[in-house]
Design a protein that fits this description.
By secondary structure, this protein is of the alpha+beta class. The protein contains 5 helices and 4 strands. It has a 4-stranded mixed β-sheet with strand order 3-2-1-4, with helices on one face. It starts with 15 loop residues before the first strand and ends with a helix.
């Protein structure tokens, strides 16, 4: 699942972030960020998390994810491994969310940041 990365800094609509499967997984960035930001990761979720972190730090939210659904699905699986307390707050840090963040706040983040339905991630689509 690799893609051609455009190198123009002026036309950011063509920049794409993606993950190349393998052992290790490789996060792929637009050319002018690739040397500094590209990295190897143990899991797909780690690679997508790194891409989202760099997008935020670079204020690059208008740059496209090659597969936002795959990104959301992998991160959702990762979130499912995070324990919650009796108040439905996460019991450890996850991505940029600190321990004690309400689970519903994270669901809203999925919907707003990745344009996916938390309900569909939870229950699947029919």
């Amino acid at each position: 699942m690799s893609s051609t990365i455009k190198t123009s800094k002026n036309d950011t609509s063509n920049h794409v972030f993606t993950v190349i499967p393998g052992d290790p997984y490789r996060s792929v960035f637009p050319a002018h960020l690739a040397e500094e930001c590209g990295a190897d990761h143990d899991t797909k979720a780690d690679a997508w998390a790194w891409i989202l972190r760099v997008r935020r730090e670079e204020n690059a939210f208008n740059w496209k994810l090659e597969s936002p659904t795959e990104c959301a699905t992998e991160l959702w699986k990762s979130l499912s491994d995070i324990p919650t307390n009796e108040d439905e707050e996460i019991d450890q840090d996850w991505l940029d969310f600190e321990k004690g963040t309400p689970r519903e706040e994270i669901w809203v983040w999925f919907e707003r940041s990745l344009n996916v339905s938390a309900a569909e991630l939870m229950y699947g689509t029919e």
